[in-house]
């Protein structure tokens, strides 16, 4: 058996600046990293090397993020445009475990990471974005049986929506009763008619939001997945196999869609792990007090916090959009008001959405600028009136056109 020791007494808390690949996060977030090093005579050198490797792993966990615009062929994503940035800062770093086994030292660190802002200030940041968080799907249905965590499909996105609301600049609407992936393994690819771009656009308009967030829970596996007949031997197996066998993983893919065109604008994978210390017959349930007190509950909470932070910062970088509800000559009524941050005198640009019927099972949509601006006049809490500035456009403004601030 390896030698288990408390790592915090051997390592002082550090604050350092490093160059790293950066995500879209604008606030500090907690990440974990693991490093291994072979002991070749000098134990302290091996520890230092393992520590550095753990920091590198934490860097990757925190900062490899893909932000993309969907390019699809027959409903399948074929290309993502990746954006990355350098320069971020580690805050508090703690060594949470140190194990020496088979002449190898293994360190696990937990660190706070505070990257610099991803996007430059823009006009769109003056407005509150409306966002819907849909229910998440589970790729492996049986993995939630342990601890009766089936409620994760609704409770996890519900908690994400609540946490996102705390950052400001957003109007977040939980819609966890709605799911959009019939083919969970290949999500977000969609080939069925009911789950085309038109369906996402319909969901967005029904909910009155600009962006739709969905997700797939890919992994909730437990390293101690013993068969039922082995349960009576569980205490003995715990003694023989050690704590490592109690580790349980949480892995989630998150997707963000622009509601009016249905385009996929962002996709990111999140993962963490923690010890599942409840017994095999536990009915802890997802989201209960007992669940959040477990080490695995803390790991899930970290993932929720990281998703919420990423999504809040991403929304801060996206354009503000609102639908035109009524058009009468150069007088317009738009589906955004004071609660969205609109003020009299604001100017917005008009866009038109257009659907392209590629084949019976695929509908794509695009946004085209009408080369017209409008000036906001009277503002109500939930809607506002605006007037076309200058001469009337060649294309007549109509219902379901959009006003946009970049």
Topology:
Blueprint: E1 3-5, E2 17-18, E3 29-38, H1 43-63, E4 71-73, E5 76-79, E6 88-101, E7 104-115, E8 129-138, H2 152-165, E9 170-175, H3 197-207, E10 211-219, H4 234-241, E11 247-258, E12 264-275, H5 289-293, H6 295-317, E13 320-328, E14 331-334, E15 347-359, E16 362-379, E17 384-388, E18 402-405
Parallel strand pairs: 8-9, 8-10
Antiparallel strand pairs: 1-6, 2-6, 3-7, 4-5, 6-7, 10-11, 11-12, 13-14, 13-18, 14-17, 15-16, 15-18, 16-17
Helix pairs in contact: 2-6
What does this structure look like?
The structure is a single chain. By secondary structure, this protein is α+β, with helices and mostly antiparallel strands. It folds into three domains: 1-118, FlgT, N-terminal domain (Dodecin subunit-like); 121-316, ABC-type transport auxiliary lipoprotein component (Rossmann fold); 320-405, Beta Barrel (Thrombin, subunit H). The protein has helices spanning 43-63, 152-165, 197-207, 234-241, 289-293, 295-317; strands at residues 3-5, 17-18, 29-38, 71-73, 76-79, 88-101, 104-115, 129-138, 170-175, 211-219, 247-258, 264-275, 320-328, 331-334, 347-359, 362-379, 384-388, 402-405. A six-stranded antiparallel beta barrel has the order 13-14-17-16-15-18. Strands 1, 2, 3, 6 and 7 form a five-stranded antiparallel β-sheet that branches. It has a five-stranded mixed β-sheet with strand order 9-8-10-11-12. Strand 16 and strand 17 form a beta hairpin. Helix 2 packs across helix 6 (295-317). The chain is elongated and about 80 Å long. The chain starts with a strand and ends with a strand. Mean pLDDT is 77; it is low at 1-26, 63-87, 190-195 and 226-233. Residues 123-284 form the Flagellar assembly protein T middle domain.
């Amino acid at each position: 058996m390896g030698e288990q020791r408390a790592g915090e007494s051997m390592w002082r808390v550090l604050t350092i600046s490093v160059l790293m690949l950066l995500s879209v996060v604008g606030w500090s977030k907690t990440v974990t990293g693991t490093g291994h090093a072979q002991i070749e005579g000098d134990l302290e050198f091996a520890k230092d090397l393992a520590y550095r490797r753990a920091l590198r792993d934490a860097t990757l966990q925190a900062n490899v993020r893909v932000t993309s615009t969907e390019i699809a062929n027959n409903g399948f994503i074929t290309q993502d445009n990746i954006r990355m940035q350098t320069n971020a800062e580690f805050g508090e770093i703690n060594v949470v475990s140190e194990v020496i086994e088979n002449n190898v030292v293994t360190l696990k660190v937990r660190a706070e990471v505070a990257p610099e802002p991803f996007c430059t200030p823009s006009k769109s940041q003056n407005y509150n974005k409306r966002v819907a968080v849909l229910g998440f799907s589970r790729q492996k249905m049986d993995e939630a049986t342990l601890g009766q965590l089936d409620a994760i499909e609704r409770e996890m996105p519900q908690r994400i929506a609540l946490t996102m609301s705390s950052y400001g600049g957003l109007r977040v609407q939980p819609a966890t009763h709605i799911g959009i992936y019939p083919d969970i393994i290949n999500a977000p690819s969609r080939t069925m008619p009911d789950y085309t771009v038109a369906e996402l656009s319909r969901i967005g308009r029904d909910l009155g939001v600009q962006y739709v967030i969905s997700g797939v829970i890919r992994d909730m596996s437990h390293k101690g997945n013993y068969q039922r007949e082995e349960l009576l031997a569980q205490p003995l197996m715990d003694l023989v196999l050690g704590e490592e066998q109690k580790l349980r993983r949480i892995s989630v893919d998150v997707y963000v869609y622009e509601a009016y065109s249905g385009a996929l604008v962002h996709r990111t994978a999140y993962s963490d792990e923690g010890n599942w210390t409840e017994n095999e017959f536990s009915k802890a349930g997802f989201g209960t007090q007992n669940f959040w007190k477990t080490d695995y509950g803390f790991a899930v909470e970290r993932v929720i916090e990281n998703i919420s932070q990423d999504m809040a910062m991403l929304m801060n970088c996206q354009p503000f959009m609102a639908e035109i509800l009524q058009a009468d000559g150069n007088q317009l009524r738009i589906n955004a008001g004071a609660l969205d941050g609109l003020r009299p005198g604001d100017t917005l640009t008009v866009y038109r959405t257009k659907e392209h019927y590629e084949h019976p099972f695929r509908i794509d949509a695009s946004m085209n600028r009408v080369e017209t601006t409008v000036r906001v006049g009277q503002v109500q809490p939930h809607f506002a009136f605006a007037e076309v500035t200058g001469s009337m456009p060649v294309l007549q403004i109509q219902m379901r056109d959009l006003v946009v601030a970049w």
